[in-house]
Specification:
The complex is a heterodimer of chains A (299) and B (297).
Chain A: E1 12-21, E2 24-34, E3 39-43, H1 50-58, E4 64-69, H2 78-81, E5 85-88, H3 100-110, H4 116-123, H5 139-151, E6 157-161, H6 169-182, E7 189-193, H7 197-200, E8 206-211, E9 214-220, H8 221-227, E10 228-233, H9 236-243, E11 249-253, E12 256-262, H10 266-269, E13 274-276, H11 280-288
Helix pairs in contact in A: 4-5, 5-6
Chain B: H1 2-39, H2 45-54, H3 56-92, H4 96-100, H5 106-118, H6 120-146, H7 152-194, H8 198-217, H9 227-236, H10 244-248, H11 257-267, H12 270-293
Helix pairs in contact in B: 1-3, 1-5, 1-6, 2-3, 2-6, 3-5, 3-6, 3-7, 5-6, 5-7, 5-12, 6-7, 7-8, 7-11, 7-12, 8-9
The chains are: A alpha/beta (299), B mainly alpha (297).
Chain lengths: 299, 297
């Protein structure tokens, strides 16, 4: 008889994660596990608590509740944790007074898992030369350099908080392509937040939607495709029948009615209009417009 | 340890302008001015050479001691501004999150800044002071030679004076840095909290502390006649120019490093240095705890 498979330890485990700034609670007791080898998209509008959640994972802020990353309390053991975790929180945060070669030389002494050879290899074929000063680089070059730095770190978890903010579409596409082709493997976990949801949808294995400090969706992308259906209908009678099935969202686009359903059997909808899977951005908009679970107190 | 040394190197790269480029420019300007002055006849090379020949050792000693003292003052002033700047630099440069993505604690990062203030920067200024002294002697020997003086005996004597003064400068820098360590740490810790406002606040804070003591516990006729102020004045005064230096300046005896060192080492309070070191570690630790909790602003 074969032994039962050992349960996979999550890379990140949060229980009752809460965070207050002053009297305002930003995170309202998040519970989630992130298993290894996945690509997570953490999506929410401005001020929803994305960065605070990431900061809690990275040990940059102290929170109530419990959070463990690679088995460690991030706030208590940030320095130890950063040997196995890499993150980009702002591409403009590279030290501007250094040259590219000085940065690589310093990092090879400071970070035990940084490989300057890999970093140089990632810059091959780009305009980034070792003698260039970081303060003279364009935004796109900064993003390339920062990505080369984190990809040259042999990390188990990579966290990217708005890594392509301010970059044009060419650089954004190149950024994500390099990340997927040259870095990701089944042992590495990637957590990414961005407002350009459609650009990362193709690479995600799981998605988390956060609204007002509460997780409102946390599912693998396959489950999202199964659970959510988009219906486009022109016929008033069909629309009425569809409404009776309780769409989570409805809007009119170019004279057509678009509805999104959660957990409704596809067979019950197929005669009511054209069916498809909603894009992540459509789903995001749909779920953000539900009544809030924890409404803001009236002043 | 490798990471700590790299962090000190990073400080040097970030602030090399104030501790290497600036001083080298100063030396270059000084040397250029001297050569120009001789060239255009503003200084009479023969008169200078005669002076160097008449009382060579005294001139060399005073000249190099003057340079050493000037560079020590430069170092003290620059380190004060360095501490106020560097402890807040990561926040101001928006590089805080990058350094926090490295596997080093905030305490280690701040200690490395203080470490740079105690090692690489003073060492750089020391080397530049030696260079200044060497150039001074070069000028002196050249003008002596123009006046028919010089020779190997003079060079040997000059080398002796050079070694005595250089060793004394090294000792003064080492002890001075230990003596002023709590001040540097305090300014740095304050900068972690308030950025460049640390410069005026670090000057204001002792006066406020003294005033507080005067109000609560009483004291002399005004807020600065208190024990706190008296103690701070004592701690701000490095006992350099009293003792041997004072006595030597009134005699014709050659400057002796051994006598200078013996005198200085017996007059300095090692208890105060130990108290200062403990204070420095405590305030840097407290500053690191603040930095741990504040990532951007």
């Amino acid at each position: 008889m074969s032994e039962p498979a050992a349960p996979i330890e999550p890379i990140v485990a949060a229980r009752g994660l809460r965070k207050k700034f002053g009297r305002k609670e930003i995170l309202h007791g998040l519970d989630f596990d992130i298993p290894p080898g996945r690509i997570y998209g953490l999506i929410g509008h401005n001020g929803a608590g994305k960065t605070t959640t990431l900061n809690a994972m990275l040990g940059l802020t102290a929170c109530a509740g419990t959070i463990r990353v690679l088995g460690l309390d991030p706030f208590a053991h940030r320095a130890r944790l950063m040997r196995d975790v890499a993150f980009i929180s702002d591409v403009a945060s590279l030290p501007r007074f250094l040259r590219v070669r000085e940065l690589f030389s310093l990092l090879s002494s400071i970070h035990p898992n940084f490989s300057p050879d890999k970093a140089h290899a990632f810059l091959q074929g780009t305009d980034l030369k070792p003698e260039l000063k970081i303060k003279n680089l364009s935004k796109g070059m900064l993003a390339q350099l920062h990505l080369a730095v984190v990809m040259a770190i042999d990390a188990k978890l990579l966290v990217l908080d708005e890594p392509t903010l301010g970059l044009d579409i060419t650089y954004r596409k190149r950024f994500y392509r390099r990340l997927l082709e040259d870095y990701m493997n089944e042992e590495r976990t990637l957590i990414i937040t961005t407002h350009q949801v459609d650009e990362i949808e193709f690479m995600l294995s799981d998605v988390m939607f956060i609204r007002d400090g509460t997780l409102i969706l946390h599912q693998p992308m396959e489950a999202v495709a199964q659970n959510f259906i988009q219906l486009v209908s022109n016929d008033p009678a069909q629309r009425a029948s569809a409404r009776a099935l309780g769409p989570v969202f409805e809007e009119t686009r170019f004279g057509q009615t678009v509805m999104i359903f959660e957990g409704v059997d596809r067979s019950r909808l197929q005669d009511l209009g054209a069916l498809s899977s909603p894009t992540l951005s459509d789903l995001f908009v749909a779920l953000m417009q539900r009544p809030t679970a924890i409404p803001e107190p009236t002043p | 340890m490798k990471a700590f040394v790299a962090l000190i190197r990073r400080e040097f790269l970030e602030h090399r302008g104030a501790f290497l480029v600036g001083p080298l420019l100063l030396v270059a300007v000084l040397l250029g001015s001297t050569i120009l002055a001789f060239t255009v006849g503003r200084i009479d090379a023969r008169f200078s050479g005669a002076l160097f020949t008449a009382a060579p050792m005294r001139i060399y000693e005073w000249g190099f001691l003057g340079f050493a003292f000037a560079w020590s003052l430069y170092l003290v002033a620059t380190l004060f501004f360095y501490c106020a700047d560097s402890f807040a630099a990561d926040k101001r440069n928006n590089a805080m999150l990058f350094w926090k993505s490295m596997p080093v604690s905030d305490f280690t990062v701040l200690l490395s800044k203080l470490g740079a203030a105690l090692t690489i920067f003073p060492a750089t200024i020391f080397v530049i002071a030696l260079l200044s002294g060497a150039l001074l002697f070069g000028v002196a020997v050249s003008t002596s030679a123009l006046n028919g003086g010089g020779g190997f005996a003079l060079l040997g004597n000059v080398a002796g004076v050079y070694a005595q003064v250089a060793a004394s400068l090294l000792l003064v820098l080492a002890l001075g840095l230990l003596w002023y360590l709590p001040f540097m740490a305090f300014v740095g810790a304050l900068a972690t909290l308030v950025g460049r406002w640390a410069i005026p606040l670090s000057l204001l804070f002792p006066a406020l502390l003294s005033t507080l003591e005067w109000v609560v516990l009483g004291g002399g006729w005004q807020p600065l006649s208190t024990r706190t102020w008296e103690y701070l004045q004592y701690r701000a005064d490095f006992p350099l120019t009293q003792g041997y230096v004072e006595a030597w300046s009134t005699t014709a005896a050659p400057f002796s490093f051994a006598a200078f060192a013996t005198d200085l080492l017996t007059r300095i309070s090692w208890v105060q240095i130990a108290i200062g070191a403990v204070f420095a570690v405590v305030v840097v630790y407290l500053a690191s705890q603040y930095r741990r909790r504040n990532n951007r602003d």
